[in-house]
Design goal:
TIM Barrel; 36% helix; 269 residues; alpha/beta; 3-stranded parallel sheet
Length: 269
Amino acid sequence: MNFQRKMYLTVAMFFIATLFMAGCTAAPTPQPKPTLDKANIDFSDTLISLTFDDGDADNYLVRSALKDNGLRATFYVVSGLTGSDGYMTVDQLHDLYQDGNEIGGHTLTHSSLSDVRGDALKKEVCQDRLNLLNMGFDVTSFAYPFGYYDDEAIKTVKLCGYNNARIVTDGPQEMPVADPYKLEAMPYIVQDTSFNKMASYVKEISADGGGWMIFVFHHVCNGCDEYAVDYDTFVQFAEWIGYRQQNAGLKVETISEVIGGEVQPGVSP
């Protein structure tokens, strides 16, 4: 075989190989965008509030997840612990507040309101709110530590100028609200609560006609505490509800946005 014929065959083989490779690497056919939920659930009658108790330092980690997904949350703060080891600083609370999140009260020292009475009870609730007001926050919402409340606790919360208070059981909260000082919450989020579990709560309540779902979070970490949500799990949930807020009628609001009311003056204990 002469040199010229060899060259012709080489070029032809290269051309065939190029066509073959081009066929193998052709751009894939665009896939249709997945539907929101296979069951075509209507989320328009479902309202979610994300609440964080205690003011733990690791709560600050969720700031970007909330902001990136158009969400706002309520952070119930123990003012007597603010800035101490393991708790958010005043500056961090202001960062969250400037993003549109709510700062609420959670007593001065995280005392169960079953353990304090009279003047001691008033100090726990009123001084906590005064501290937060003096930090520059409009404080209208309260959460009972450990979920404990009774008639004296409710009376004191009202006296100290709060417009509402959250417990930790019996959710979802029915609308309209019968008693804003006994706001009912979904089961505690704990370290083994998965994303699928939280999403199933939302889908089941929505499919059953909707309601106000108040989620209670504490620590944000991977297994550091029994009452903790893994950071990646929370981000996944934030993205999931944020998308449905934008595209499927789900509403996500702070406690004060739902209940409303004027900011009352502080009350000295």
